[in-house]
Design goal:
Chain lengths: 348, 348
Amino acid sequence: MSELRKDPIVDRWVIIAAERGQRPSDFKTKPEQPRSEGCPFCEGNEANTPPEIFAIRDSGPPNSPGWRVRVVANKFPALCIEGDLARSGIGQLDRMTGVGAHEVIIESPRHSDDLPSLSTEHVVEILATYAQRTCDLRRDDRFRHTIVFRNYKAEAGASLSHPHSQLIALPFIPKLVKEKLDSAREHYRRKERCIFCDLLEQELALAERVIYRNDHFVILSPFAARFPFSVEIYPLAHAHDFVEMDSAQQCALADALQYILQQYKITLSNPAYNMTLQTAPSTLPRAGHPDYWGTIAYDFHWHLEIFPRLTKMAGFEWGTGCYINPVSPEDAAEYLGKQSQPARNDQP
Amino acid sequence: MSELRKDPIVDRWVIIAAERGQRPSDFKTKPEQPRSEGCPFCEGNEANTPPEIFAIRDSGPPNSPGWRVRVVANKFPALCIEGDLARSGIGQLDRMTGVGAHEVIIESPRHSDDLPSLSTEHVVEILATYAQRTCDLRRDDRFRHTIVFRNYKAEAGASLSHPHSQLIALPFIPKLVKEKLDSAREHYRRKERCIFCDLLEQELALAERVIYRNDHFVILSPFAARFPFSVEIYPLAHAHDFVEMDSAQQCALADALQYILQQYKITLSNPAYNMTLQTAPSTLPRAGHPDYWGTIAYDFHWHLEIFPRLTKMAGFEWGTGCYINPVSPEDAAEYLGKQSQPARNDQP
């Protein structure tokens, strides 16, 4: 079982998921495997994944063909769903048992499908699946936060090329999420306003870093973007939790998401990218778990972060937590904001 | 000129160093260039770098052959040494002019040299050069912090394979450094002890994560290591600032550094790695710049961080600031602590 350990200097939890018997020679670089034969995520190969946790189906019983979106446990989970959450110390050091959930959301039965060219209805089903799994895992008292993310291509950390996202439920609120929550709470405490709403209002008025906008969402090129062509997608109306979207909002998010991924494909020659969903954590006051975040973070404003993997982290970034971005966010907004292709919803 | 921008949510400064006219097509992946012909860092090619800022020489005037270690400005600097430090706001957003220093420490006149196989005396000269440049830049009132780092191989961000380190002086204390300083200060406030000294004492007593130790330094496999086989090198005696090392300590650090880099080479088949030097900032009380760090951080304990680039950052890490490490720090200590080669100081 894996173990959670806290860095005592910077208060950062790390998952130590040591696979048994792994040796230094196991870290030789492996080539990408784009082959589709034998892909465990393809329709017909359901027996090669752990059992189905959830699916949206046209037909058939669980673990058989006939699905459109399918969720299974990760075969090599970073955290384990079984077991009690136990905390212990070693002198000044803190650790927890590696309890959590690690699921894979298989986005299509077809290996060669790609998010930007799916039908909008299909993307809405994927987003609804993110919400369904998040809500279900929030019922587990051991977990404090759930993160949904998508790694596209091997350079971004994907080990299989079949379209999929992942979800990890954690027994703690991670460092970066806590920083964002703290910042929103502090701003609200002083001003009784949402810091994200304030920033969105300014960005919409300046219009220098707005890439795309529809009825419910806006895509921004962040003012202090860490990476070239990184974007953030925000709901225009204040909302702390993405699971509360209605169907019109889900359609609008699918539209925005497909817009930017299609723009990446065209403008940046189909780059690897990472996407992460930043939403309020599930922490409600619970017996035995009182903490600072014992209230719902209504002051947070959920959003998606996406960035292509074009630059490399190097010593400067690792040593400072500061970044060097070689493309101005205004130039990035201009490139990504240009409508470069009329039809986005054609099947490949 | 580049610009510094602050992320308003997580208080992180980003360097926007937009090169003029850079377009999305410039971000196609470039192959590594291991060739030595025409390398601007090789002896004899001094005219192909910006003018020499500092050198340790056997003979010859500046910008001619005869040097052992040579420092020049980075030809493509992230920050610019000329200009005033000006702060301004755009509504709620903060920015500064991109003033700073970005230097390259060329570690040897020979292209094929490598840090672990240099003579110890030569490595001491490199370490002394880090200190000389740091002290010199601290005299500049515009700068608050100086970071020395080393990127080895293209996967770790090196654009030239000739052995070199880099140094960046910043007009702010970067986020990660500030977190470490805050943590040390808070511990000292409560206990009147150094948090790093406390942790070192415990690690030396447990002896589970000690990789190597000499008279003045210890190499640890960190308890909550983010990456497989990452290490930290600490002076055994409390010291807040690496520039205060005496020559015995410099020799001992050179020995420890060469030990671990040689172990990486053997155990992990010569991997790419990053090294960063974490030392107290230069901030002294200055007219016009009062701030929280207006005192010397005697409560800090300087150290080196080194890690091989074996795993990939993916959506989970980017979205949470949390990491998944597939090798237990105890296993890493065991692999890296084994003496696998008797002589380390033979020239190649």
